[in-house]
Amino acid sequence: MKITVIGAGHVGATAAHRLAEMQLATEVVLLDIVEGIPQGKALDMFESGPVGLFDTRILGTNDYSDTANSDIVLITAGMARKPGMSREDLLMKNANIVKQVTDQVMTYSDNPIIIMVSNPLDVMTHVSYVRSGLPKERVIGMAGVLDSARFRSFIAEELDVSMQDINAFVLGGHGDSMVPVVKYTNVAGIPLTELLPQERIDALVERTRKGGAEIVNHLKDGSAYYAPAASAVEMIEAIVRDRKRILPCSVQLDGQYGLNKVFIGVPVKLGRNGLEEIIEIDLDQTAREALQQSAAIVETNCNNLSSVLA
Ligand SMILES: NC(=O)C1=CN([C@@H]2O[C@H](COP(=O)(O)OP(=O)(O)OC[C@H]3O[C@@H](n4cnc5c(N)ncnc54)[C@H](O)[C@@H]3O)[C@@H](O)[C@H]2O)C=CC1
Ligand SMILES: O=C([O-])CC(=O)C(=O)O
């Protein structure tokens, strides 16, 4: 198993180290456009092997030929937002970066599974899908796992219970229009609505929607990376170990939820072949409309990129 991480910044480097510690690959390649950064970080990670107890080889590089024959490619290259910015403000710059990165990746790997992280997430997943020519099962965006993890952590804190017992799904686009689905949120099987009053649930939903911005406002000069990296690695683990996990991911819909040819977060089964099944759950009218509104925003942003994708 060879896994390449493009972008050796906060998310990319954190994910690469976690991939190595979890021994999910025999080789992890960390690539960045800036000279020295991937080499230095990869060497530092490699030197943690004897104490972290892993044998994964980690190579830092600026040369795409080192990524040849990757099984999985995690794309984290691009700009992160600063306070006051929306993820959409990154659209044009990151679309050009993701386009160029995808073209380079595909020059050296025939049939990788691409996991997208760069923002705005659903649109960048679309860009990589179009440029790569890969089947839609092999281009998957990470957002729902992170947004659901945030919602789960807030619920666990509020109820003072283990995070392990919280199940929650946040669907839709990775932005203010995301759709936390309270109906499918439970604590060890007990519906959340039986454990918390509606106004507390509403407050946790609102905090989840703004979870990315909350961290950006603390950090001032960048965005979250521990939870995002852990979320991307959870998806990779499901694929590498063929776990058949049901996780919310951004995938291209083909009629499900009344939506067509748009990347949006929905529950999917992840296994060795990447996206193995899109799961259509019953949504109430409000959640269904919210998902459709969220998809309309992604579609508009994709349409604005026709010049980049040409
Ligand atoms: N999907 C999600 O839930 C999340 C998405 N993100 C997004 O992930 C991206 C990365 O975030 P961070 O790692 O915090 O940013 P960062 O600024 O720490 O790292 C980005 C890295 O990309 C590199 N880069 C830029 N252009 C490149 C190119 N053409 N080829 C190769 N590398 C290139 C930069 O040199 C830098 O090292 C951002 O777009 C951010 O918004 C971040 C967190 C969560
Ligand atoms: O907020 C950001 O820009 C980064 C991100 O997508 C997140 O942390 O959810």
UniProtKB/TrEMBL annotation:
Keywords: NAD, Oxidoreductase, Tricarboxylic acid cycle
Domain Lactate/malate dehydrogenase C-terminal stretches: 146-303
Keyword NAD: yes
Enzyme Commission code: 1.1.1.37
UniProt keyword Nucleotide-binding present: no
One Pfam family of this chain: Ldh_1_C
Residues the entry annotates as binding NAD(+): 7-12, 32, 94, 117-119
Lactate/malate dehydrogenase N-terminal domain sequence ranges: 1-141
Annotated residues for binding of substrate: 81, 87, 119, 150
Domain of life: Bacteria
InterPro entries membership: L-lactate/malate_DH, Lactate/malate_DH_C, Lactate/malate_DH_N, Lactate_DH/Glyco_Ohase_4_C, Malate_DH_type3, NAD(P)-bd_dom_sf
Class of enzymatic activity (EC top level): oxidoreductase
One Gene Ontology term of the molecular function aspect: L-malate dehydrogenase (NAD+) activity
Recorded family membership: Belongs to the LDH/MDH superfamily. MDH type 3 family.
HAMAP family assigned: Malate_dehydrog_3
Name of the protein: Malate dehydrogenase
